[in-house]
Fold:
Amino acid sequence: MQSHPGNVFVISAPSGTGKSTLANRLVASLDNLIFSISTTTRAPRTGEVEGKDYFFVDDAAFDEVVRANGFIEWVQVYEKRYGTGRAWLQSVLDSGQDVLLDIETTGAMNLRRAIPDAVMIFILPPSAKELERRLRGRGKDSEAQVKARMNHARHELELYHAYDFLVVNEDLETSYRQMESIVWATRVRRERMVGRAQEILRGF
Amino acid sequence: MQSHPGNVFVISAPSGTGKSTLANRLVASLDNLIFSISTTTRAPRTGEVEGKDYFFVDDAAFDEVVRANGFIEWVQVYEKRYGTGRAWLQSVLDSGQDVLLDIETTGAMNLRRAIPDAVMIFILPPSAKELERRLRGRGKDSEAQVKARMNHARHELELYHAYDFLVVNEDLETSYRQMESIVWATRVRRERMVGRAQEILRGF
Structure:
């Protein structure tokens, strides 16, 4: 990726950690921050809108973009593939928008290689016990599924050291404030402010 | 400095930029953040309290600490010297407190060498014109003093690239929120959260 005025934020977390709640609130509350729109081969679910929730494509079209190196990162989850379009992301960043990518750890590792200055945030549950309690509390999963999710969570958590920020979601308000602070602080990092500083200096 | 649980924040800015207002509010509002207490050879001003505002010492005592390498950084301003005591700072950080140092650019450069992971924040005026207007508006300085302050400001501003965060103080509320965010975000940086993450991981 070329240098760009917008920031890339990546957020990953085991299922049941509260990631979607936090990410949705962040994008709804902060100016100039939008969700990345992935390209996927899975079918649209009821209510999902092309070009808003996803770009929906068939396998052949997805293959073509992969061959053209047109994805910053892409992953296969079960039978379906999900990718972040390079040209799409670049054009959004060039317009000065910050982009939030809600992606799995595998995709995040790939994205880090493509965009080294991406700001990577990992959300952790306060404890294994609490995550299990929340997963059961949702009532969406069978016993076997809960066990599989807990096992998968452990594998994801082992990758925490690849992230820049670790948010332990014990209390939603505190976690939200931490996430918001990461975005605000990133926007005043020296690298982002050099142009402004030089302009001010020229006035002296 | 040895590794420590507390964070070191450094704040520098040209005179008239609003640094003291921002720093005072930050320390008053945030838990677990205190001002560094400098050691100085200048005389106490009315109302200043030993061990709260400064540690007041004579020249011989200051020399002794310098010889023993007891200052993390020290500078001479006109006839007077100011230093940050190594043992004092280490003991405060060891107790888990974050410390805010309000120091000049020269001291800040020295501190960076001693504590590479210090978080360094530089506050800039929105423009030279606005800084001049604010300096005159204070009515504290003669014309010659304003000119000298503007000249000194330019020299300080040239060091902006040595800082991690650049806050342009155009609007006080926005600048305050940026500063607060830098502190909050620093507290969830991976390096600070490794212990917690490992503890959570052990539960899985």
Notes: Chain A touches chain B at residues 124-129, 150, 153-154, 157-158, 160-161, 163-168, 177-178, 180-190, 193-194, 196-197, 200-201, 203-204 (CB under 8 Å). The mean pLDDT of chain A is 94. The domain at 8-36+98-202 of chain A is CATH 3.40.50.300 (Rossmann fold).
